[in-house]
């Protein structure tokens, strides 16, 4: 997709009642720090620069992606173009030197500590949207949001977001400080938020930034590249689930081919049609993937297309393993 074509499609989407105006697709930067196999910093920098040149404004990162590597990378990428981007930053996850996951820490003092280091690594004075990556079961959400509200008042954060929390937590947090958006997984393969979470968002005037739109590459036919690839440990990519999903993915690819779209464009266009006003955040590691994803903005689906895709069949296996799903507030019913 050319820069001129991107500008022709450019309109903005407001994140909730109080949040910023953003381009209708966001750039997820996690995959630039090794979560899905080998990466190349130079290519990552080219991708971020190309995204901003094509009009993309929202960059999503996390302080625990690559144990700080991702924030440092994004900081390099936005140097000299800070005014053209909005930074969405997740925090709170604890990691060991071996890359292991050690839980969450959302105590007020920890919130402010995490923010201090993120500001330094990113090389900025303010974070546009700051969000805990998950709920900390040991800290009331009111205390966490209260500390984040202090950061807003002090000018270090512009807007508060959340990630992977359920409807009741949304309500409790929103009573303390306006929430701009909820980041949550949503795709043809993961439609759980439709039943309770999305109606709650719309009731409260909160938007959503949607990740996992390509189901971590499952819907495009991508496969784990080795043990270091996070996806190798996810149910949908292993065992009998993987074999069953090949049929669904094959049907999706044939559907896309008939419409002269790539599978990624089809998956993104379905989300845009299903949830207008919400913003897909697409993980892209190179310029070719970026241009392919942006092409979805010029290929809207008809209601008949959406209905046909809905009937393709369910993807087999959970989006995370059972142990991880039990820890997600968004999965509680």
UniProtKB/TrEMBL annotation:
One of its GO terms (cellular component) is cytoplasm. GO terms for molecular function: oxidoreductase activity. Keywords: Oxidoreductase. The keyword Oxidoreductase applies. InterPro entries: Aldo-Keto_reductase, NAD(P)_OxRdtase_dom_sf, NADP_OxRdtase_dom. Pfam families: Aldo_ket_red. Residues 24-312 form the NADP-dependent oxidoreductase domain. PANTHER family: AFLATOXIN B1 ALDEHYDE REDUCTASE, ALDO-KETO REDUCTASE YAKC [NADP(+)]. This is Aldo/keto reductase. It comes from Myxococcus llanfairpwllgwyngyllgogerychwyrndrobwllllantysiliogogogochensis. The lineage of its organism: Bacteria, Pseudomonadati, Myxococcota, Myxococcia, Myxococcales.
């Amino acid at each position: 997709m050319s820069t001129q074509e991107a500008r022709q499609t450019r309109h903005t989407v407001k994140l909730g009642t109080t949040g910023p105006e953003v381009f209708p697709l966001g750039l997820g930067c996690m995959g630039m720090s090794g979560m899905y196999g080998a990466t190349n910093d130079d290519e990552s920098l080219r991708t971020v620069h190309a995204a901003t040149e094509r009009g993309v404004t929202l960059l999503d990162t996390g302080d625990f992606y690559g144990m700080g590597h991702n924030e440092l990378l994004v900081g390099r990428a936005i140097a000299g173009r800070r005014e053209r981007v909005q930074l969405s930053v997740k925090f709170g996850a604890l990691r060991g030197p071996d890359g292991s996951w050690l839980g969450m820490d959302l105590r007020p003092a920890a919130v402010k500590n995490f923010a201090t280091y993120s500001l330094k690594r990113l090389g900025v004075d303010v974070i546009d949207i700051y969000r805990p990556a998950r709920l900390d079961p040991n800290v009331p959400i009111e205390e966490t949001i209260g500390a984040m509200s202090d950061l807003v008042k002090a000018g270090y954060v512009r807007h508060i977001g959340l990630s992977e929390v359920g409807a009741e937590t949304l309500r409790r947090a929103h009573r303390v400080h306006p929430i701009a958006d909820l980041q949550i997984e949503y795709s043809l393969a993961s439609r759980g938020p439709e039943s309770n979470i999305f109606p709650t968002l719309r009731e409260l005037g909160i938007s959503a930034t949607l990740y996992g739109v390509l189901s971590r590459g499952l819907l495009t036919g991508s496969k784990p590249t080795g043990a270091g690839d996070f996806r190798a440990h996810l149910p949908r990519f292993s065992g009998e689930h993987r074999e069953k999903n090949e049929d669904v993915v094959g049907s999706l690819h044939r559907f896309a081919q008939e419409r002269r779209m790539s599978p990624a464009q089809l998956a993104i266009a379905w989300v845009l049609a299903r949830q207008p006003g919400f913003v897909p955040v697409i993980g892209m590691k190179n310029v070719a993937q970026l241009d392919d994803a942006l092409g979805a903005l010029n290929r809207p689906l008809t209601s008949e297309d959406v209905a046909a895709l809905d009937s393709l069949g369910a993807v087999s296996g959970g989006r995370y393993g059972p142990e991880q799903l039990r820890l997600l507030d968004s999965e509680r019913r």
